[in-house]
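It is time I had a proper look at our fold encoding. Can you supply me with one protein entry, sequence and fold together? It will help me judge whether the discrete encoding reads sensibly. Leave the record below and I will have a look:
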Amino acid sequence: MEAFRAYLGTWPRLATKLMERLAEALEEGTFDHNNADELRLAYKEAQQVALERIEAGKTPYYGIVYPQVLWKCPNCQEETTGAYWEISNPVTKERGMFRVRLVHELLVHGESYYVEPIVNMSDTLMGQDEHHWDAKKLLKIIDGMPVPPEALQELQQLAAKQAEEKAAAAAGKGH
């Protein structure tokens, strides 16, 4: 998933684009930052302009959901904020949520999944839970975007593999 990893790393964060537009408006002197009503209107205008710019660039973007959550990677000890990335398509308005750890595993460690231990209240290991990118969902979100062919191919291959694994698991359970 190297090509998709590189592509994902180029996506803008909505909050960053919003702050850039607010900084521009502040420099232009279009609002008084000490006036709550003007600040509220400037924020609304900045949000509209930021989204229009993202839409014009036809680039998927993301927002951090629950930014107050702090997570520390057990592998590299990097601290990351947020529980989920909400990935959005500015043209079709499709969107979906992906765990921050899953995004971190791909961007930082090059892994498209991770295994999380399941422990009880006394910290006894009860099992493991695997978390994978939902390639089918991601393909639906980025449909219509100018995706690099290599990245699209990697996602399509992952989606096909996941569909085969799901069908094999269902067949094994007698469904």
Observations:
- The first strand starts at residue 61 and ends at 65.
